[in-house]
Amino acid sequence: MSTMAVTGRVAEVSPRVKxxxxxxxxxxxxVGGIFAQIGVRGRxxxxxxxxxxxxxxxxxxxxxxxxxxxxxxxxxxxxxxNIILYDLFKVVNKKMAMVLLFFATVGTAVEGVSVLAxxxxxxLLGKGSYLAAFTTAQLQAASYMSLQMFDYGFMIxxxxxGFFCISLSYLIFRSTFFPRVxxxxxxxxxxxxxxxxxAHFVSPPVGDRVFPFLALSGIAEVxxxxxxxxxxxxxxxxxxxAGQSM
Length: 246
Description:
- By secondary structure, the chain is mostly helical.
- The protein has helices spanning 3-44, 50-59, 61-89, 94-124, 136-174, 180-202, 204-210, 212-217, 219-230, 235-245.
- It has one domain.
- The chain has ten helices and no strands.
């Protein structure tokens, strides 16, 4: 087989390979997020009880640290997947693909800062001599408060991810190489992300009623992830749009 033929075949599968790499990264992010939120914080944090939450964290310190490590790793996975999505969708609309990249990058940065509040209880509940200046109850309260701050930091990040989902939905609708039904589902999920975040900002009780719907809307990101993994994208249609954008 000639060198030109090999090069041509690599170029032909390249967009699909990129899509599948994005699918693998998306799967890591989804599974990691579920583990950190449900398997760790959902298991250890006792709503409204700072003392019980502190005791759980101390008793399951390794699990809590693992949750933090997984969360940081998923944030690192956000960087390459955002670059790949920009590269795939810039042939549809380069300016909108840049908007997509902007919301994804800022959302990741905000979440990265908020994750520090996840780690804070390990410092506050540690054995440092400087902690002797505080009572046990004060340290437990501060630890619980840091987790509350993490929740709101995460909601701010979800506001950016909401616009990310809406931007991605638009690009999928304009593209011809992904199913439009996935774009529609992502538009719903992005709207629910925004609704959930701002409902919590304005009225936490209302936000608590909106939050369960996020689990249902999660089918959008799961569908997109599985499509990337199993199908990749329609290479021929991607090339057609790439040719039109040149």
